[in-house]
Amino acid sequence: MTGLLQIVFDALSLGSLYALGALGIALIFGVMRLVNxxxxxxxxxxxxxMLWPSTNAAAIVFAGNLPSWLLVPLLLLxxxxxSVLSExxxxxRFRNANPATMMIASFALGFAMRNFLLMxxxxxxxxxxxxxxxxxxxxxxxxRIPMLQVVTIVITLVxxxxxxxxxxxxxxxxxxxxxxxNFTMARMLGVRANGVILFAFAISGMLAAAxxxxxxxxxxxxxINMGANVMLIAFIATVIGxxxxxxxxxxxxxxxxAASVIFQATLPNEARVFRDSFVYGAVIIVLLxxxxxxxxxxxxxxxx
Amino acid sequence: xASVELALSAQDVSVQFDGLKALSNVSLAVPRGRITGLIGxxxxxxxxxxxxxxxxxxxxxxxxxxxxxxxxxxAAHKLRRMGVARTFQSGRLFRELTVVDxxxxxxxxxxxxxHHAIGEAERVxxxxxxxxxxxxxxxxxxxxxERRVAIGRAIMCTPRxxxxxxxxxxxxxxxxxxxxxxxxxxxxxxxxGVLLIEHNIGLVLELCERVFVLDSGEIIEVGPPQxxxxxxxxxxxxxxxxxxxxxxxLAVDGAAA
Lengths: 304, 257
Prior knowledge:
heterodimer; A: mainly alpha; 12 helices; globular; B: about 260 residues; alpha/beta; about 25% strand
């Protein structure tokens, strides 16, 4: 029973991380049909923003020393700012380009950012200690669950609830839903296109920062490639969820997280190192059966 | 001509797409509170003309005026705020949003706060008699309801001009009759200048005070319905139409090359 509960929490917390990532990608894809491959580098950038630039092995913690009530908003702001800036400087020029061009532009932006970090911080992973107390286990129904997992899950649920309310209940949310479905039409109706897109980028950037914080707390290191894995899985989640469907991306994020944990727990020992092959194999099967994704919206293809 | 009467008008408008002339020296006026018709065979340039009048397409030359001031180059959403609304050939609703959200987002786009936009959406749905559809997802609507919602979206916040791009396409006779009633009410009750683009020529001749006939990018005839009915030029454009017969409901493809 406690073993099972442990697995459930592992699945939920890993899934949460992927869901947050998928959400960040799906939101931007929704409003501008851009798969932002630089998202992973946004994550890394936010983590490194806590450190003072240096190539030393030992990290010089800078913003990371702030009290958490200051650090968290500051980092969310960094993520939002970075994301918004990338829209203004890079992606805005590609508004009317085809999706493949935009995707390559996002690769290029990611590359540039990664190498910028490389220049300032070197490629060595740096240790960073954030909220060590979150690593301590708490007891839930007899199972000992790391506090961080609980926090991750709670944060994700709160973010999802807040975002749902935002999309359903506010005019900006309404505008974003309309723009996600048919951007040109929304624009013609007077929906402030730039505003909606910038807003989507800002939220996406904040999500990247949140993921960065969780990853850094969990691993205790800052590594310039740390966002890559989450980005890849998050992208796959948006594809499986049905490109363009925000709830689909979130659900698929949880699904992939759960699949990873279940494979980890049930595969025979010798096969466990190949867990990811099994996960990606499952992804391939899903796509063979439903190429349009599990929750594809009707608007996925058409764009005026 | 349009100097006394308030109107949305095009003067000598031409539109060129890489060598292809879609419109050449077209002049047309849509007076306030009246219903004006625009007919012509497929590919005549009707939709291009609507696009020019609503800011979706830049005119290569010529002037577009809204009750006096020139509006060339004004973006579509700004023109909408100035009171020039339109519908599209295939409805183009937000299919995943509910009907009320479809209207509401227009109100919001027009710069109103959400509360006001919802109120206006409810008022428009009531006025059109589609209040019962409010909660329906637009993608699930039957065809004719979809058209009514599209019209509802276009008359949110009561524009001054409404350009209807083939609103009756695919409708039965009974349905286009209902549509005709709505269009009349829009012109009479709301004092909106309506430009009706239709292949259903019977509907156009029945509703419109004045009809423009476009063929190969040029206006070939202007006048009251009776004159259009009797025009040789128009009959020539719609090849094969007999003088005494009512015009066909649907135009023949590729007429008058």
